[in-house]
Amino acid sequence: MATDLAVRRYRTCYAMLLRLYPRAHQDQFGQAMAQTFHDLCRERRRAGKGLLAFSLSIFFETSREIVRENAVQMTQMQRIVYRVALVALGLLMVPLVASRLVEGWNWGPGAFVVTYLLFFGTGMAYALIARRRNAWAYKAAVGLALVAGFVLGWATMVHMSETENPVNLVYFGVLAMGAVGAALARLKPQGMARALFAMAAALAVAWLITQVLLSDTPAGPVWNAGVMHGGFVLLFAAAGLLFRHASLKESK
Length: 252
Fold this sequence. Notes:
With 252 residues, the chain is mainly α. It is elongated and about 85 Å long. Helix content is 85%, strand content 0%. The chain contains 8 helices and no strands. The protein has helices at residues 4-18, 23-46, 52-101, 109-130, 136-163, 169-185, 189-213, 219-251. It has 2 domains: 4-66; 134-252. The two termini are 48 Å apart.
C-alpha cells in the first residue's frame, strides 16, 4: 500500500511538471491542479490501489496539455509580434515621407533603423505589459506612460544632438527612474502609480534645475521649455492616476 510519503513525492513531481505551463496558466490553475492531484492520490491510497500507473497516466495527460497550451501561447505571441511590426512599419512611414517633403530633413539609413526599433520596442512593451490586466484603466495608463516616455526620450536625443548640453541627461534619468520603479513594482498597478508620480515629480524638479541654468537666456525659450515640461508632468501624473484607478478597482 502506498504511504503518505509516496503521495507527497508524487505531488512534488506533479508540481514540478506544472511549472512547464505558461506563467498565466500556472498562476490561475496551478495550485488547484496540484491539490486535485494530491486528493486523488490520497483517495487511491485509502482504497488500497497503486499510484504508479495512475500517476503516469495523469503525467502523460498533463504533458500533452502543457504542449498544447505552450503552442497556443507561442501562436498568440507570434501574432502580437507580427501586428506590432506592421504598426511600427506604418509609423515609420511618417518620418520617411517627411524626409522627402521637408527641406533639411537629412536622415541616413541608420536613423530610420533606430527609429523603427524604437517604435517596435515601444509597441512590444505595450503589448506585453497591457495584457497582464484586463482593466481599461491599466491598459490606458500603460499606453499613456509609454507614449509620454517615448516622446520625452526622443525630444531629449534630438535636443542633445543639437546643443550637446549634458544637463539633458537629467531626462534620461527620469526615464530610468520609471523603468526601475516598474521593475520594483512588478508591473502591479499600485506600484506603477507610485513610479509614475515619482517621474512627474522628478520632471518638475528637472524643470526647476533647467530654469536656474537658463536664467540668462531670453524669456521665450524658457517659457516654451516650461510649457513642454508641464505637459510631460501632466501626462505622467495622468498615467499615475489611471494606474491608481486600476489598483482601486482590483482591491474591491
